[in-house]
Amino acid sequence: MNVPDLVSPIYRRREADFKIYPCHTNRASSLGGDCERALVYARTHWEEAAKPDISTIILLQEGDKHEREALADLGRAGFQVIEQQVALEWKVFQITGHLDAVVVHEGESIPLDVKSMSPHIWDSIFRRGPGVYPWEEVREAFQKKPWLRKYLGQITLYELFKSVDRGILLAVNKGTGALAQVNVDLDYDYGEFLLRRAERINGHVAAGTIPDRIPFDDEICPRCAHYTTCLPDHVGREPIAFLDNSIVERLLEERERNEDARKVFEAADERVKKWAKARTEAKWAIGPWLLEKKVDGRGTTIKIKRAGEPASAEKEGTHAA
Ligand code: SF4
What we know:
Order of helices and strands: HEHHEEEEEHEHHEEHHHHEEE
Number of strands: 12
Helix content: 25-40%
Bound molecules: iron/sulfur cluster
Number of domains: 2
Strand content: 15-25%
Distance between the termini: 59 Å
Number of helices: 10
Structural class: alpha/beta
CATH topology of the largest domain: Lambda Exonuclease, Chain A
CATH class of the largest domain: Alpha Beta
Shape: elongated
């Protein structure tokens, strides 16, 4: 009997579930983005927007699951959570949004937006681990990535929508489930900037004009959904920029984290081997360790292993001189 392929149908289903809808308003989740031209394209050329690849689609869908679960957790923890997934519309500015929820606490209604994050991004922002953070403490960390830079705009607009002066970003670590709460006081100047931006975009849409490009940015433009519309001549010129580099980035961060450990290992390894080579004996038993020196025509090799462990290339330290 054939064993069914469970994976491919799920991938096909998930890809089919991801739709790009017509966009006739300024979305609160995007209005804080880096490029005003992209925001105009999102209104006027939405049907040309690049569809994310399947791995990104699955990542987004997994994020949605974590976010729904975090909201359910709030309810189970006894918080009054209302207005979940309520659609918001600010007609005069042509801004729309979907509020994740409002938390009612001591009579105050606080808009809440839940954000799921990869473990390395979450760890890089929330240095103290799970807990409550004022915006000022994490402001700089939220500037590091294009998508993180949009979050302040989104919660600011929700505060303006609800006429309140503070909101909460609840950040979920997708790897560990750890939670961090960011309390965001309304920044009126930034709110004003977002509303003026919405007005400028509306003006471009009405006039059929398009703002200037931002200076080409490797981190922003090749990831932009309107890259092929905006810069058709660039497409294919920087193949490295097309890589989904989140995995590479994690590896680079791991590499940096372990840099000191590698230096410590190499220094200890070198001292032990120098000591062994200066001795006349060929074998040593030191604590749980066995060391063996071999001399041949290519030089001197010192093998190091724990007693009782099979010799293997990975577990032995060798040094030829
Ligand atoms: S490709 Fe760059 S300049 Fe063009 S719309 Fe996108 S972000 Fe803006």
